[in-house]
Amino acid sequence: LAPEVIRLASDPADAGYRRLTAMRALNAIGTEAEIDAVRQAVLAEPGDLDRRLLSELISGLPGTPASVSWLLAAIGRAAPKKKHAVDHLSHELAAYVGRSPVIDPALVVGLEALLCTAPMLSNLSNQVSQRFEWVLVAASRAVDRLIRERDPIVLTPAAHSIIRRVSTARSHQSDVVSGEKETFAEMVPVWPELNRAQFWHDVEQLRVRQAAKSGPRVIDWWRPANYGAAWKFGAGDFDYTVE
Question: How far apart are CA 92 and CA 27, in angstroms?
């Protein structure tokens, strides 16, 4: 049975439910080596990759550092999400983040790279990729874990950028993150080092945007918050602010 299942799962000429069923069966009866061979075969196919096939392949993907490279390459070639269509890829990607023992730095960098892939959504202040808006859920969950675990990876540029993009998406009421429970606006301020680093990251990003359009210098502390911000200053920041 296994050889026939592998043949069907690896057959790019069959884009229907037989191939999907074969992949589900392979997740149940195949060895890790057999499943990985099918993953590599799918990745070698030309053009955009079927989102349904990727959902099945990711559903059985172990949350290990060794799987990150394949995962990022695969979702980077996922076919564009169709509006109003049933789509499980975002859920499976977020579930992968949830079952990973640790959040690999390469995963954070890769998700951020997808979120900044042009063209950008103008209704989200040009802060989120049009094609990869659906990646916001997995990215927000990855950073949510980093904050809760006080992992220093969250103090890197890629993680700061994800916080800014998710905050912007929330501020502009993106449907993608409307059901997410992460609360960066509550979590970031209680970690002073992250709160202050996030503020300066957002300031620098605004300065870059202003310079690109020959806009005025950024001299008002509140201006970066116009795009949605996770940072907040209180009485405990007084001495830092004066300095």
Answer: 14
Residue 151, Cβ neighbours under 10 Å: how many?
Answer: 17
Closest to 15 (Cα-Cα) out of 48, 46, 43, 50: 50
The whole-angstrom separation of Cα 142 and Cα 134 is: 14
Q: b/e string for 59-78 if b means 16 or more Cβ within 10 A? A: ebbebeeebbebbbebbeeb
In angstroms, the Cα distances linking 75 to 60, 199, 200 are: 15, 30, 31
Residue with tokens 């993953």: 39
pLDDT at 4 over 80: no
**Cβ distance 176 to 216 under 8 Å?**
no
Q: Any bridge partners for residue 129, and if so which?
A: 120
Residue 40 dihedral angles phi and psi, to the nearest 5°:
-65, -35
**Residues 240/202, Cβ–Cβ less than 8 Å:** no
Rounded CA-CA distance 109/158 in Å is 5
Say if CB 194 and CB 152 are below 8 A apart: no
Per-residue pLDDT at 215 exceeds 60: yes
> Is the pLDDT at 48 greater than 90, yes or no?
yes
